[in-house]
Design brief:
four-stranded antiparallel β-sheet, 11 helices, 5% strand, globular
């Protein structure tokens, strides 16, 4: 039997801390979801609650990976994180009364890095279908088409993206850009190493920075330090990472991603969640739900118009429900 100390992917994590933190995240997540469904909250409070849910979903995923949990379930867990951010986007834009208000402010390195992590995970977990949905969180805002590092990742899926030579944060991201265009394999590996070495220090303003120092027995706010975007660049550019042993580099996730075969038994790709705006024709017959109204689902025939729910979220977005069973009476 593999012990937790051998299974975990970062040494700061103990079994007791992982188990307690997982329970706390689940408890706070359930409370937050209940509060989100409470119509008594105003749009500002709803926005803050939805943001809290995003944090909890991401922390859960990161903590599971840090603890050495299997990688395959993270593919669907990542979609849950994206759905939470989509719900937050609707609540935030309703509060700001701005239909293009961005979820992430790229000038803040903690915001920018979270988007980089999500993009990196989408590539590493073979969920490229999530890239357009992640981009929608900042699309048409002041940050769309303004950062070379972001464009380097999103451009592998979305067509006709701009070529840029400017960015918001030179460190550590200049090393990541250099890793994509160094003329030699050795140079690309060296730049990826340099990125990993510079990454943690550059994140000093992030709220999770130094959280390992705040661990007190089984109490704390640490959930792992991971430069998932570095792994994505290694994957996309076939960079030799055999000599990279830095703690923040998700080496086994890159190896898993390189050997991933969607058609193999037990490795079927996670289903893509269909999304459609109100007023558009239903693309597929079945049960649909909307973050605009908690715990609400409806059955639509293909071709019928998707209705608006007229909530404080603003524009209603319908999502294909993974559970296609009829409701119980």
């Amino acid at each position: 039997m593999t012990t937790f100390s051998k299974q975990r992917r970062q040494a700061f994590l103990t079994k007791g801390y992982f188990e307690v933190s997982s329970d706390i995240i689940r408890m706070h997540g359930a409370e937050t979801e209940r509060d989100i469904s409470n119509p008594a909250f105003d749009v500002e409070s709803l926005s803050l609650l939805c943001f809290r849910a995003c944090q909890l979903y991401f922390e859960s995923l990161s903590l599971n990976y840090t603890a050495g949990q299997p990688i395959e379930p993270l593919r669907s867990e990542l979609e849950s994180v994206v759905v939470a951010y989509e719900r937050y986007m609707l609540a935030l834009r309703a509060y700001e009364q701005d239909p293009t208000y961005p979820v992430f402010g790229f000038q803040e390195i903690a915001h920018f890095e979270r988007m980089m992590q999500l993009m990196g995970l989408a590539y590493l977990l073979h969920r490229r279908d999530l890239i357009p949905r992640l981009h929608a969180l900042i699309a048409d805002s002041a940050y769309d088409g303004t950062d070379a590092v972001y464009e380097e990742l999103v451009g592998h899926v979305l067509p006709d993206r701009p070529y840029l030579e400017n960015w918001y944060h030179q460190l550590p991201y200049q090393h990541l850009l250099n890793a994509t265009d160094e003329p030699t394999p050795e140079g690309r590996t060296a730049e990826l190493k340099a990125y990993c070495l510079a990454w943690y220090r550059a994140m000093e303003e992030a709220p999770w920075h130094d959280s390992h120092l705040r661990i007190d027995g089984n109490d704390g706010d640490y959930f792992g330090y991971w430069a998932f975007e570095a792994g994505a660049i290694a994957l996309l550019y076939d960079i030799d990472d055999s000599s990279i042993k830095h703690m923040v580099y998700p080496k086994d996730l890159v190896a898993w991603s390189r050997s991933f075969q969607p058609e193999s038994a037990g490795s079927a790709p996670a289903p893509t969640r269909l999304r459609i705006e109100a007023g558009q024709p239903c693309p597929q017959t079945g049960w649909w739900m909307s973050p605009a109204k908690a715990n609400f689902r409806r059955y639509f025939e293909q071709g019928s118009a998707m209705p608006s729910l007229g909530s404080d979220y603003g524009l209603t977005i319908w999502q294909w429900d993974a559970d296609q069973s009829a409701p119980r009476l």
